[in-house]
Design a protein that fits this description.
alpha/beta; 6 helices; 5 strands
Length: 144
């Protein structure tokens, strides 16, 4: 199994789910900070520290969408994915937060292996997109 060393921010108000995910992802090579409070996560957040945030949506204080908005104000490059048991949130998210372009929604329940796979897939796709934007001359040379 390949070690990741990608740094994750995990926020879910259910301690059992949160710590199961944290331990499982750390066993797969991720470095994870976990918070059961969205306000505490926001207070402790450091721009540039995380590669990826996995946020529950239905939380007291700040819901996952509101937390997403606040985190992106602090670090616009942060990649964010929502982890929820409800499919209808995707449409609600697009309606309520059109300025946020995340389209990553993972549906509970999901195995830790699948969560790790989806995180890596999302980060790899984002890396490829950034590479394509920043390196057109390299791409042109490799096509020749």
């Amino acid at each position: 199994m390949e070690k990741s060393s990608k740094r994750l921010l995990l926020v879910d108000d259910s301690p059992d789910i949160l710590y199961s995910i944290k331990i499982g992802l750390e066993r797969r090579g991720f470095i994870a900070d976990a918070f059961t409070s969205s306000r505490q996560a926001l207070y402790m957040f450091e721009p540039g520290k995380y590669d990826f945030a996995l946020l529950d949506i239905d939380m007291p204080e700040l819901n996952g969408f509101e937390l997403c908005r606040e985190l992106l104000k602090l670090d616009p490059r942060l990649k964010i994915c929502f982890f929820t048991a409800f499919e209808y949130y995707r449409d609600q998210f697009r309606w309520d937060f059109p300025e946020i372009k995340s389209d990553c929604f993972l549906r509970k329940p999901m195995s830790i292996s699948q969560v790790a796979f989806e995180i890596n897939k999302y980060l790899d796709a984002e890396f490829q997109n950034e590479f394509e934007k920043e390196s057109p001359s390299i791409q042109e040379r490799t096509r020749r």
